Amino acid sequence: MRDKLINLKINGKKYQITVKSNTLLLNLLRELGYTDPKYGCGIGECGACSVLLDGQLTLSCLTLAISCDNKEVITAAGLSEKDQLHPLAQSLIEHAAIQCGFCTPGMIIAGKSLLDKNPNPTEEDVRQYLRGNLCRCTGYAPIVEAVLDQARKSKS
Amino acid sequence: MATYSDCLKGEGTFMFNVVSKKTPRLDAEAKVKGLEKFASDIALPGMLYAVVLRSPYPHAEILRIDTSEAEAMGAVCLTPDDVPDVLYNERGVSIPAKTYRDRRVLPRKARHYGEAIAAVAAESEELAWKALKALKVEYKVLPPVLDPIKAIEPESAQLYERVFFGEEEIAIKNNIACEREITVGDADKAIASSDFVVEEEYELPRVYHFQLETKSAVCNPEPDGSLTIWCTTQSIHNVRILIGSIFGIPLSKVNVKKIPVGGSFGSSIQMNSIIPICAALALKAHRPVKLVSSREEDMYDHCKYPSRIRLRVGVNKDMSIQGVEAEVLVDIGAHQIQAYPLLGSMAGWLVSLYKWKNIKYRSRAIYTNKVPACAMQGYGNPQMNFAVESHVDLICEKCGFDPIEFRLKNHVGIGDEFWGQGPTVRSIIKSCGLEESLKTGSELINWKERGHPINKTGRYRRGIGLARGFHTSSAGAPGPAEVIDYSGATVKVNEDGSVDVLTAVMDLGGGTWDAIAKIVAEVLGLPLEKVSLSPVDTRTTVYDVCTHASRGVFAGGGAAYKAAQEVKRKILEVSSVFLQEHPENLELVFDPKRNDAVIRPKGVPFKSMTLGEVARNAMVTGLGSIAATVSFRQKTCPPSFVTNFVEVEVDTFTGIVKLLRAVCIADCGTPINPDGVKGQLIGSLARYGGYALCEETEYSEQGRLKCEGFITDNKIFTTEEMPFLNNIVVHFTNTYEPTGPLGAKGIGEAAGNSVASAIANAVYNAIGIRFTRLPITPEKVLEALRGKEA
Amino acid sequence: MNTNTKILPLEFEYYEPENLDEALELLSRFKERARIIAGGTDLLVKMKRELLKPEVLISLSRISNLKYIDEGEGSLRIGAGTPLSEIENNPTVERSYSALFEAVRSMAAPAIRNMGTIGGNLANASPACDTAPPLLVYGSSLKIKSKGNERVVPLEEFFLGPGITVLSPEELIAEIQISQSEPPKGSAFLKLGRVSADIAKINVAVYLKREGKRCSCCRIAFGSVAPTPLRIYQAEKMAEGEIFEEQVIKKVALECQKQIKPIDDVRSSKDYRVWVSAILAEEALKAAWLRSEGSL
Ligand SMILES: Cc1cc2nc3c(=O)[nH]c(=O)nc-3n(C[C@H](O)[C@H](O)[C@H](O)COP(=O)(O)OP(=O)(O)OC[C@H]3O[C@@H](n4cnc5c(N)ncnc54)[C@H](O)[C@@H]3O)c2cc1C
Ligand code: FES
Ligand code: FES
Fold it and tell me: Residue C106: helix, strand or coil by DSSP?
């Protein structure tokens, strides 16, 4: 097949779209207006394009859209409601973990993926889990702190 | 011990309501929700996608480009024949008379591998890419010049025959782009007669900015003949002026939008090479065009200035410096973006670090067939700082001086002259937290316990190092200078007492926009939520030169401060009508109970009006809008002093150096955004940790990046290279800059300048080996350790 | 510059077979024109860099019986399509196959480990491949299938050069078979990169079997020191039958250093790799020995 009609749920919204075999999930999402996953390298090294694909942390720059039939994508924009921020997003704000914000959507997705798997991470766990998400601005410390703090808060 | 979480500020409390308080970023919510629109996120109906053909040779004449096949595919093609025959300089920050111009939108000769030589636009990026591959180019391949030392030999190939300096056409000889010499006193004589002479050469690598957003542009030709541009830039007004002058469009018909930037670090001070390409395509196609660089293209677009610095310093037994001789060679790559002012600035960083008494400074910038170098957080300062701060430790080691005492004795401080941007930008230092920094920092890191490398044994050896640096705040100076530096702002009071601020100042992620809003709120006695930054463009704002030179808060915020004061004066004037008091008897203050700005007769708190009431009354009575627009130039360039203490651990078996602990101490005057200052310091730790230990974009003999533009082989720090949270300490000194808005100075670049120097000094303290070349890779450490053993 | 990593410029036909037979059928139909795509983390990067230009992609993602970890007595069978993160999270792997666990853990970052598969890692045949050294020292074999055919190839015979293996265009790896002898035994993996989440400058895996104070079986494999992942037989022989103590370990490690033939490349230098190989070998030998409950 060179193209295919796929069913895709993005941030809770259902789509039926024909995609070409070489369309990348990242570009499909962005064309549909979900511009929060970013292009940072295109080769899996920076994490800016991170999304959850059926709940799994996935790099959309190395995912063929055609392979996502009947799957569910969640992007950072899908985590926060209109008037309700995702708690991790809130924590990033409180810890001043956002500067230019280009890495932020990917970072939130990776952070959420970590907390889903391991609600009680150590600092080492957070560092190891987020190591594929590059940030040139913050030096990571406030991001790591925000994730740890969020874990702490949701425990109590 | 204080940890990363609590930012310390020395004694003294602030009298501020908003400024210096922790506040969530104004754009934070949009950013966490992923709703912020960067240039690469802009999509217009009917737009074409552009891609760029880049030279497969480091040095080649472009003889012919056949576009017929690509055009048959429906693509719009752009070749050197399609662009105005104008040589420009992309930076637009120096005055024209001191600006070198060597660049064309698309050149007739490629001067580095990856240089843009043609472009196409089509209905989709895939189609554009296909069309691009159908372009047929005939090259005349020339021998490349890659090594700057070889480049100056007469038999080497020449990148340029002639370029422009101001309006004058000048010849380029031996690939020397420009030279600068500065002499104070007689350094040769002073050094010759001093007790000790210490000499060494240092070398700093080419590193890539690695801002997370690759450079992007969207250009839209409007029905009225104007051109609207969304692009990655640090200066919307300079993009406007350059596009206007290259394409001959009146400036009123070029409109550049102020949008967020996904990091920059200096890479977009100049108008990016892709912006005029995108504009030319849009003008040719009469359609909106979008051009987003791939990461590999971006890495072939810019890098930090690689430098070699030789220092010879004479010192006497009483620790007094007698003189310095400095020789600087900068490999600028294929274009001169800002090498001439850079050489001047590097001289400035040198002379402003220590009281050398006698100075002989010689510098040269050399063209090579490599990616053009440009400013990157520090503009030559990290390079000079690494040489000087390494050298100071070297002197102390050789002469038996205490490194802290030596620095305290010889540093340039209050009352001394500071060169903020080369020899023409000077002012007298009025605030300096260096002494406090050295004292506090040495306590926080436990400096006294650092030991001597001779006594350190075993596989893992720890060392503590220190370096101090600074950076200017703006390029402001009392008189006219080589550098343009002024900003502007409009502040207007809305009819409900909320306030709009219109500024062209860009925020590169550091929080400059928050700082500006906070300064205006503070002056007008408003809670921060009542001040908004308007989405603006070049049409709706007065000129701001650029968010560079750590001037966003000091100069951009300074202009907003001026405008707010002007508005405050007008508020009191208007209020005097309603309160029946002379304006001079009125005051505008923040009323915590009402959480609002109130105007009241001094000392008569019950007879007051809120700003909203005043503004509404002004509307009803026809007194009009309360607003002010200012264009403002700072007359000083105060340095912010930053001091770094770090602890490293060297694995002597693998050569791996780990950054274990860091104490970052900043004197930035009033920290308008404490979190922002902290963010700059910690971010710099990561960036300059990488500069010190792992980053370098090396070239093959064929003139290509060894990593080929792929970050797989050009890694920056990840979470795991950073020290643990408890091992990062941030401290602010207790200073107030009298010439800054509400006492503030800059911080962006100061935060990074001395990090790599401190790391190298710590490595020395661990293993007794001084690395004079960065990065200090495990390969180099092991080689040096083995050499030492042998 | 010839690449555009924002898009995947190549056009190709895409198949997503539901079972193995269908996949093998497709492979036999398209032969050289086709490539298998598992996680795509190597393949798509190579396609974006235009190093590979397949006309057909055959995805393994819907073939559920390529994703499993089956434990037997001292053996492990891993479906080639198993994501690396599942191997990392498998308790048996963590407990009893330390070298493999450490190798997977060292790879890239969680997202890549969710996407990338063990079969892809091997078939990609990078000299720096991280799962190869541990699998080599466990004496693993690969079950390789093509339409109507099946063969089992020892991993040692699988790699022929960078990116080159014994696989014919019609074949795929179906399963990785690992067997270990009874305890006491131990294994370890070590790797050096420039930063974490990085491709190896050099990596090493060691597997040891202990009999009292003696080492009865020793296997050592290095990555990034030759065109393919490399067993160091000469060094292994020096260890076998010896009372395992500091001096022996050093001798074995130095032998490794002599045997490897690394080159200079963008990631590191020949000299550095040679220097650290002995250190890494020594540490991995010690760690494996301690894990076999031997004392030092
Ligand atoms: C950012 C990044 C970091 C990485 N870091 C590491 C690292 O640290 N260490 C490391 O070793 N690797 C690393 N890799 C490489 C890669 O992720 C791994 O090799 C991964 O295991 C590949 O698996 P895959 O399923 O994605 O393979 P694919 O990309 O799907 O396939 C790779 C190759 O194998 C073939 N293939 C796949 N499955 C089979 C099969 N069952 N039978 C026959 N042929 C098959 C494909 O046709 C293709 O040629 C990294 C990659 C990226 C992008
Ligand atoms: S863009 Fe996908 S990892 Fe960088
Ligand atoms: S905030 Fe700019 S890259 Fe992370």
Answer: helix
Q: How far is the CA of A129 from the centre of ligand 3 (A)?
A: 17
Domain containing residue B575:
486-632
Residue of A nearest to C86 (CA): A56
B201 part of a folded domain: no
Per-residue pLDDT tens for C236-274?
Answer: 999 999 999 999 999 999 999 999 999 999 999 999 999
Beta bridge partners of B109: B61
CB contact under 8 A, A80 and B265: no
Q: Separation of B25 CA from ligand 3 center, angstroms?
A: 14
* Structure-block tokens of residue B172: 């380029």
How high is the pLDDT of residue B4?
40
Complex ipTM:
0.98
- Is A102 near ligand 3, meaning CB less than 6 Å away? yes
Cα nearest neighbour of C5 on chain B:
B294
CA of B710 from ligand 1 middle (Å) equals 17
The Cα B77–Cα B48 span in angstroms is 12
Evaluate if residue C205 carries a pLDDT over 80. Answer: yes
Superfamily grouping for domain A87-155: [2Fe-2S]-binding domain (1.10.150.120)
The model's confidence at residue C182, banded by pLDDT at 50, 70 and 90, is confident
The residue written with tokens 């690939």 in the block is B175
Beta strands in chain C (DSSP E): 13-15, 34-37, 56-59, 69-72, 75-79, 141-146, 149-154, 159-161, 164-165, 172-179, 185-192, 202-211, 214-223, 230-231
**Domains, in order of start, for chain C:** 13-59 (3.30.43.10), 64-179 (3.30.465.10), 185-291 (3.30.390.50)
- Ligand 2 close to Cβ of residue A46 (< 6 A): yes
Q: Say if the Cβ atoms of A138 and B682 lie within 8 Å.
A: yes
Quick check: B558 pLDDT over 80? yes
Mean pLDDT over each residue of chain B, to the nearest integer:
96
Mean pLDDT of B198-204: 98
C-alpha to C-alpha distance for A42 and A47, rounded to whole angstroms: 9
Residue A7 CA, chain-centre distance (Å), reads: 20
Same-domain pairing of B458 and B524: no
Mutation target to probe the A interface, by most A beta carbons within 10 A, among B660, B664, B719, B749 is B719
Ligand 2 centroid from CA B247, angstroms: 36
Per the DSSP assignment, residues forming a β-bridge with C175 are C79, C143
Nearest 5°: the CA angle B137, B142, B145 is: 130
CA distance B116 to B114: 6
> By C-alpha distance, which of B78, B69, B76, B54 is closest to B136?
B69
Nearest chain A residue to B712, by CA: A45
Chain A interface includes B45 (CB < 8 A): no
How many contacts, defined by CB atoms under 8 Å, are there between B and C? 74
pLDDT given at position C2: 86
Evaluate whether B769 touches B776 at the Cβ level (below 8 Å): no
Query: For C125-204, where are the alpha helices, taking DSSP H only?
Result: 132-137
Say if ligand 3 is within 6 A of residue A108 CB.
no
Query: Which residues have C-beta within 8 Å of that of residue B749, sequence separation ≥ 6?
Result: B377, B378, B379, B381, B471, B472, B549, B550
Residue B6 has pLDDT above 50, yes or no: no
- State whether the beta carbon of A143 lies less than 6 angstroms from ligand 2: no
C-alpha span between B172 and B161 (Å, rounded): 5
Q: Please check whether residue B228 is in contact with residue B325, taking contact to mean a CB–CB distance below 8 angstroms.
A: no
Fold of A3-75: Ubiquitin-like (UB roll) (3.10.20)
- H or E element, residue B348: helix B339-353
- Chain C 195-214, CB below 8 Å of chain A: which residues? 196-197
Domain segments of chain A as ranges: 3-75, 87-155
Tokens 């072939």 locate to B300
C109 token code pair: 């970052």
pLDDT (average), residues C5-18: 97
Q: Is B509–A137 a contact, with Cβ atoms under 8 angstroms apart?
A: yes
